[in-house]
Design a protein that fits this description.
The complex is a heterodimer.
Chain A (H helix, E strand, L loop, with lengths): L4 E5 L12 E3 L5 E3 H11 L4 E6 L4 H7 L7 E5 L6 H6 L2 H4 L4 E5 L2 E4 L6 H12 L2 E9 L7 E7 L6 E9 L3 H7 L9 E11 L2 H12 L7 H11 L2 E5 L3 E4 L5 H11 L4 H21 L1
Parallel strand pairs in A: 1-4, 1-6, 4-5, 8-12
Antiparallel strand pairs in A: 2-3, 6-11, 7-13, 8-11, 9-10, 9-11, 10-12
Chain B lengths: L2 H7 L3 H4 L3 H5 L4 H17 L3 H18 L14 H8 L3 H15 L3 H29 L4 H5 L26 E6 L1 E6 L7 H6 L5 E11 L11 E8 L4 E5 L4 E5 L2 H4 L8 H9 L14 H9 L4 E8 L10 H16 L8 E2 L2 H17 L16 E5 L20 E4 L7 H10 E5 L7 H13 L2 H23 L2 H19 L6 H14 L3 E6 L7 E6 L4 H19 L10 E7 L5 E5 L8 H13 L7 H16 L6 H9 L4 H16 L4 H13 L15 E2 L7 E2 L6 H12 L3 E6 L5 H4 L12 E3 L2 E3 L1 H16 L5 E4 L5 H10 L9 E4 L5 E2 L5 H10 L7 H21 L10 H4 E2 L8 H5 L2 H8 L5 E6 L9 H10 L3 E7 L7 E6 L2 E6 L14 E10 H7 L10 H14 L3 E11 L3 E11 L13 E5 L2 H4 L8 H6 L2 H8 L5
Parallel strand pairs in B: 5-7, 17-32, 18-21, 18-25, 21-22, 26-32
Antiparallel strand pairs in B: 1-4, 1-15, 2-3, 3-9, 3-14, 4-7, 5-6, 8-15, 9-10, 11-13, 11-14, 12-13, 16-27, 19-20, 23-24, 25-29, 26-29, 27-28, 30-31
Classes of the chains: A alpha/beta, B alpha+beta.
Chain lengths: 285, 1108
């Protein structure tokens, strides 16, 4: 199996503008978030990308990633009917192939030489199955994420067999159903926002939509169904991801990129000066 | 290998279930001590909880029931104070080490064995309770709450739909949960106790039904779920909690206040808030404003309101109302915070289990507890609840055999048909008999007996399990009549075999009357919950159910009237109508004009709102008052709202003044000494008297007495004395005086019942009270000596009328001799205690530290009570209760001079000219009788007073025989300058006195001939009373209110005690040591089981001759 396709979803009412934000990347270049995401995907060996977006945003998105237009298809989601439905819009594009999936409002910053997407694809190709990137997250934050229940793959430090997926669980539910041995107390494996998925997920999504056409379709329920139908792994990733829709999310993403790049020392010096000056002023007052 | 260890570790049921009795009954002292040594090592080395606990119970039982009764075991033994202190501080292991050290040095003795028995017993229960706590904490779904210590880490959020105000009314929506209560058709011998289910899951079985109720003849026309709880968001950053039925509301703005359980009556709602995770238990101790947490949960400037209402179900109903109320509130909070899938409707099975687990947590946090079936109301209809063996994924695995939480299997209609359900409803009459008792001691007894595998009880348990299967089979077959037979057989057989105290005279009287009246139309009695007397079921032929309901109400009232002074009733008996609830706990989402709370809530809240300036009300409060105005016009439920509101705002004082008038009349009638009372009040306020001042001067020299200073009846030859005594008895030289004027506070827990009339145990197949037992002993003496033995019961204002009427109603139990009541002539008015005395009692004296959560609860309660005393006036008259609860008897010293004052002694000596001696004893010293040998010794010795003392055991607290500044005398515990001294005294005062009448009169400066000169007598008594010390004491008094609710208040009273007569130099006193079974007293109900099992009850029976 080889992963050559990617789907980026960016149609959510609260996240539509986030991929269009401009940031300075590690190399000091001004880029849109979308551009940074697309670069990461292409660097991982993907050849075709589908971006699912709101019909009104096509022009702005095209402008935001001009250099890569030949490899990108824009698919519109006409009514906001949930994250799962946005995915389902890309069913035709995906066809019968495994594909990489990222969310457009997250930014991923690798802490090692290998970028997150590349790492994930390598694991999926090696195991020939769906793999979701996950991160141990303390329980106070789990109401913001999809969370998995899993058991560790024997002999591996980073791989888990996914047994259950619940979207934004309470810690009460998490403790009962999503316990993973080997994690620190009060920590659960939460989605990192990046997955390699088999085409079966599209069939499951379609089936769930048929069964309950009025209900907003979320992705976690389908991923939970996937655990029953196929071998499905999770890869524990120690990289950073930033939800830019969260309070100060964009600022944190920018800081992280800058501190991981070539301007690190300059930025550190300027920040230090800022803090010191601020403190002196407050003492003077 | 030790036989007992073999029993403990064996997997073979035939060995594992061998009773302790089988091994120990004929074992020698050496064998017993060797077994104890092996068990002691075993329990330290073994990691299995139940092995350890069973070893602890074996050790307890050997020291309690076997070692003290072996030859070669000394009855004297000094208990080290240090060990006692360890016990008080719950450091049982240290206490055990110390006791064992003393035992190794001095050999086995009764005193040390009593200490060891108590320490092992408490350590066993502590170990079990700790395990339950650990299991509750580690139940998945509860763990995170102990890790969440700061509002910023709080992972819950309210569901969005609760945060959106209705556009029309401007009010937030209301979440309303209705929850039924549960009945258990059979509890298989209390098998729902956590400890039992965790060790014996295969025997833990319950058939449990969720029911709706209403009180028959009340305004409500049909049964409905008895519990309603409500939750909504409010526009004020506080947690507002209201209990409508308890009439209490509070707005909480600090985190620490949520954990203050005893501050008001809202402890249960607070426990629900904590156990559901809204304020997680991990935040206890955080000194933060609640607004920070509320902001995270519901948004800035908003708060949460929780309201509860229990509809007409009294406390002690045996229907697990409080657990189901807690579960209802927890379910509501879980729904609101997204911990359930759906916000409305019934819960799913895993959600119900979680609610049950959190309810157990809530009960532990709130310092209470029940069985594992109690949250049964959360489930729908009929269900089987059974213990489950722990598996690898359970936190209990490797610790206990069974899981903490059982498995619930709902019996659907294919198993129990709709027709059967209807039949059950048509046959069963549910009542509340009016008694509210603490079942805690019963549950402890059950656990202990199970772990000891006592033969009779173990057989009864097997039988109860069979009955359970039979009841389930008959239920599936739809045979209600046979169910009735089985539940009655279960009550009469296994239940009473395991715990004789689960039945009582009142219940038996009801069953007898119903059986007599309804014959074969009465199909059976059914005990609900822990014990009878409260919630009970009677199964009838459906054709007579209506009449049976009516008659049962009347029968209960008649029985209550007859036993009002003998049995602790908390309320009027009631008959219920009921219906099986097929929903379990169920929630509705209400918005707009429907989002209105019950009328009782507004009656409680509105006066406060109306008193405030309108501009200080929040927008929602404004809107709510508008909504209320409309509801008052259109909603029929609000029909009486305005009049109720006025009643609440302007409380009627009729009851209060009527009570005061009765109180004044009582005081006048019983010779209340106004001058003395004023003096005591002013002394108390000024600090001249008080708990500290009770004590003898610190420089008093108080020493133990030597064996040569007392006459030991256990070792001396008594034959010659017996001859003297027999002759004197035949001559008619003795009268018995039983002191029955006291309130018996420890026995009745301040409920105002007359202890002497309490039918506390069965003798010769019938429940007997203390008066009857004493008369039965005198009857036997009369039969043996062939003479009249006058028997006097001294009474007081609180006991006279009750005893007199009762004795009349039973024709003096056909006592063949003279039976005389000696009415009291002294009365005191209780006072509100001073903060000084309360702090001294609670903070300065050695007191039993409680289990962690209960201790927190108690400390919070103590603070609340100190505030109560300060707010109501320290040292002022206590009048805010029923008149009888405001006055007090003034100590048993007065009960003897009263015989002079009321002419009864004169009457006696006139009718019995040979009368020379009195034998005075407490009503609860059941072994005290006119034994000729002891009487003979008293005569031969020629003393004015001969005092019976017993060798001390751990529980014998309250002074004893001592050498005080060179003179032998009885000294009260209250008077000891240091509590430690008591532990150096070998002998405890049994308060039984042989009195030479003439010498006593002489001490009063009286002669027999002076007894007709009342002025002289009065003066003599007054003079003597001035020489007697006055002790200030603090006692608990119950105040009842609402539906069986009770508050216990500490109050101050004073007393003078007869034992202080021994300090008079002119009165010659001698002391004899008597066997424990003769001298021991029954002070607390919890002593009864041990008393029955150690042979004391059988001993008493040998002293008695029953009229029937």
């Amino acid at each position: 199996m080889k992963v050559t396709k990617a789907v980026i979803t960016a149609a959510g009412p609260d996240q539509r503008n986030l991929p269009l934000q401009t940031l300075i990347d590690r190399d000091g270049n001004r880029k849109t978030v979308l551009q940074i995401l697309v670069e990461e995907v292409l660097e991982a060996g993907v050849e075709e990308i589908a971006v699912v977006l709101h019909p009104d945003d096509v022009t702005a998105y095209r402008e935001a990633c001009t250099p890569f237009l030949s490899q990108i298809s824009f698919i519109t989601q006409n009514t906001p009917s949930g994250y799962g439905q946005a995915m389902l819009c890309a069913a035709e594009f995906v066809g019968n192939d495994f594909f990489l999936h990222l969310v457009g409002d997250h930014l991923y910053v690798s802490r090692s030489q290998m970028r997150c997407a590349k790492h994930l694809i390598a694991i999926a190709e090696l195991n020939n199955c769906s793999v979701s990137a996950v991160q141990p997250t303390r329980e106070a934050l789990i109401p913001h994420f999809g969370v998995i229940g899993a058991s560790r793959i024997h002999g591996s430090n980073e791989l888990y067999k996914v047994e259950k997926v619940i979207e934004k669980p309470t810690p009460t539910v998490a403790e009962q159903q999503l316990f993973v041995s080997g994690l620190r107390a009060g920590h659960y494996l939460c989605f990192f926002g990046m997955h390699v998925l088999s085409p079966t997920i599209m069939k499951i999504l379609a089936q769930l939509q048929t069964e309950n056409p009025t209900k907003k379709l979320d992705l976690s329920s389908s991923l939970n169904e996937l655990t029953v139908k196929e071998h499905y792994l999770a890869l524990e990733i120690s990289d950073w991801r930033f939800d830019m829709g969260a309070k100060y999310g964009l600022l944190k993403a920018q800081l992280s990129l800058a501190l991981a790049g070539k301007d690190r020392d300059r930025l550190m010096a300027e920040l230090l000066e800022f803090f010191v000056t601020k403190d002196i002023h407050s003492i003077g007052r | 290998m030790s036989k007992l260890i073999e029993i403990i570790i064996s997997e073979n049921p035939e060995v594992k279930n061998i009773s302790l009795e089988q091994v120990c009954l004929h074992a020698s002292l050496e064998d017993l001590l060797a077994e104890c040594a092996s068990l002691e090592t075993f329990r330290h080395d073994n990691s299995n909880l139940y092995h350890r606990v069973r070893a602890l119970f074996f050790l307890y039982a050997i020291h309690r029931f076997y070692i003290p009764f072996r030859d070669g075991v000394s009855s004297e033994g000094i208990i080290p104070y240090e060990a006692y202190e360890h016990m008080l501080n719950r450091r049982f292991e240290e206490a055990i080490d110390l006791f064992l050290k003393v035992q190794a040095q001095k050999g086995a003795n009764e005193g040390i064995s009593s200490g060891l028995a108590d320490a092992y017993h408490q350590q066993a229960f502590q170990s079990l309770a700790n395990q339950v706590k650990r299991s509750v904490r580690s139940t998945p779904g509860n763990q995170w709450m102990f890790r969440t210590g700061h509002p910023d880490d709080h992972p819950l959020k309210f569901r969005k739909e609760l945060l959106i105000k209705d556009t029309q009314t401007g009010m937030y929506p209301l979440l309303h949960e209705c929850t039924p209560v549960r009945m258990d058709l059979t509890h298989s011998g209390w098998s729902d106790i956590f400890f039992l289910g965790m060790d014996f899951p295969e025997g833990a079985k319950v058939l449990n039904i969720s029911v709706d109720l209403c009180v028959r003849d009340a305004k409500q026309d049909a049964p409905k779920p008895p519990i309603d709880t409500y939750l909504r968001v409010i526009d004020e950053p506080v947690l507002r909690l209201t209990s409508i039925d308890l009439g209490t509301t509070a707005s909480i703005s600090k985190l620490s206040e949520v954990f203050d359980f005893a501050k008001d009556y809202l402890g249960l709602i607070k426990a629900a808030v904590i156990a559901s995770g809204i304020v997680p238990p991990g935040m206890e101790g955080a000194d933060l404003p609640l607004s920070q947490l509320l902001e995270r949960l519901v948004g800035e400037g908003r708060g949460i309101e929780l309201v509860s209402q229990v509809n007409n179900i009294p406390k002690g109903s045996r229907l697990a109302v409080s657990t189901n109320l807690l579960a209802s509130l927890i379910s509501l909070c879980m729904r609101a915070t997204g911990q359930t899938e759906k916000i409305v409707g019934a819960l799913q099975e895993d959600e119900r289990r979680l609610v049950a687990a959190k309810a157990i947590l809530g009960e532990w946090i709130g310092g209470s507890g029940g069985g594992w079936q109690d949250s049964g109301g959360v489930w729908p209809g009929m269900k089987l609840i059974k213990g489950v063996e722990a598996t690898l994924k359970d936190p209990e695995f490797g610790v206990s055999k069974g899981r903490l939480l059982p498995k619930h299997t709902v019996l659907e209609r294919d198993l129990v048909s709709a027709e059967t359900r209807q039949k059950l409803q048509d046959s069963l009459v549910i009542v509340h008999g009016g008694m509210a008792q603490d079942v805690g001691p019963i549950l402890e007894m059950v656990t202990e007996k199970y772990l000891l595998r006592s033969e009779k009880e173990w057989e009864a348990r097997q039988k109860a399990i069979l009955f359970f299967e039979e009841v389930v089979t008959k239920l599936k077959a739809g045979d209600v009549k046979e169910i009735g037979q089985f539940t009655q057989q279960n009550f009469e057989g296994p239940i009473q075999t395991i715990i004789p105290w689960s039945a009582n005279y009142y219940t038996e009287l009801l069953i007898q009357t119903v059986t007599k009246e309804f014959g074969d139309k009465f199909w059976g009695f059914w005990m609900m919950g822990g014990m009878s007397g409260g919630g009970m079921g009677f199964i009838f032929d459906p054709n007579v159910k209506a009449i049976a309901q009516k008659r049962l109400g009347e029968i209960m009232l008649e029985a209550k009237k007859r036993l009002i002074h003998a049995v602790p009733f908390a309320m009027e008996p009631v008959v219920y109508d009921f219906k099986i609830n097929e929903n379990g706990t169920f929630a509705q989402f209400k918005n707009g004009e429907d989002a209105i709370l019950p009328v009782g809530y507004y009656t409680l809240i509105t006066p406060t709102l109306l008193k405030r300036d309108l501009h200080t009300l929040t927008k929602c409060q404004h809107k709510e008052l508008e909504l209320l105005g409309n509801a008052n016009k259109t909603n029929p439920q609000f029909g009486n709202f305005v009049s109720n509101l006025f009643e609440r705002m302007m409380p009627q004082s009729e009851n209060t003044s009527a009570n005061l008038a009765v109180l004044m009349r009582l005081l006048t009638q019983h010779g209340f000494d106004v001058i003395q009372h004023s003096q005591i009040k002013s002394d108390l306020k000024a600090g001249r008297i008080g708990l500290v001042q009770n004590r003898l001067p610190a420089n008093s020299k108080i020493e133990d007495v030597s064996a040569s200073e007392v006459f030991d009846t256990r070792t001396e030859n008594l034959k010659a004395y017996a001859t003297i005594g027999e002759q004197a008895l035949k001559n008619g030289e003795l009268a018995i005086v039983s002191l029955a004027g006291g309130a018996g506070t420890r026995w009745t827990k301040g409920s105002g019942v007359v202890k002497s009339l309490n039918p506390f145990a069965k003798f010769a197949g019938k429940h007997r009270n203390f008066v009857e037992v004493h008369l039965a002993k005198s009857r036997l003496t009369m039969q043996q000596c062939g003479t009249n033995l006058p028997h006097i019961f001294t009474t007081s204002y609180s006991t006279h009328e009750a005893i007199e009427q009762y004795l009349q109603s039973v024709d003096n139990y056909s006592y063949p001799g003279s039976l005389i009541l000696s009415p009291g002539r002294a009365i005191g008015l209780r006072l509100i205690p001073t903060e000084r005395d309360l702090r001294f009692l609670w903070e300065e004296t050695a007191r039993q530290v409680l289990d962690e959560q209960s201790q927190k609860m108690q400390e919070s309660l103590h603070q609340a009570l100190i505030n109560w005393a300060k707010a109501n006036g320290e040292g002022e008259d206590y009048t805010d209760n029923l008149p009888n609860q405001c006055i007090h008897p003034v100590g048993h010293w007065y009960e003897v001079p009263n015989l002079f004052l009321n002419g009864k002694l004169l009457e006696l000596i006139t009718e019995n000219p040979n009368l020379k001696h009195l034998f005075i004893h407490n009503i609860d010293t059941l072994g005290a009788n006119a034994d000729p040998a002891f009487f003979g010794y008293h005569i031969a010795k020629g003393s004015a007073l001969t005092v019976e003392v017993i060798s001390r055991k751990l529980d014998d607290r309250g002074g004893g025989l001592a050498n005080v500044n060179g003179s032998l005398r009885l000294v009260e515990g209250l008077a000891l300058p240091d509590e430690k001294i008591e532990f150096d005294l070998s002998y405890y005062n049994s308060n039984s006195f042989w009195v030479d009448i003439d010498q006593l009169l002489k001490a009063f400066k009286l002669l027999r001939s002076d007894l007709s000169d009342m002025e002289k007598v009065k003066n003599a008594v007054w003079q003597m009373s001035r020489r007697m010390p006055t002790y200030v004491t603090i006692k608990d008094v119950k105040k009842r209110w609402g539906k069986g609710q009770e508050d216990v208040f500490p109050i101050t009273q004073f007393e003078k005690l007869w034992g202080d007569m021994t300090a008079l130099p002119e009165l010659g006193c001698s002391y004899m040591v008597v066997p424990r079974m003769r001298g021991q007293q029954l002070k607390e109900v919890s002593q009864l089981d041990g008393w029955l099992r150690d042979g004391s009850a059988d001993y008493i029976d040998t002293l008695c001759s029953w009229e029937d």
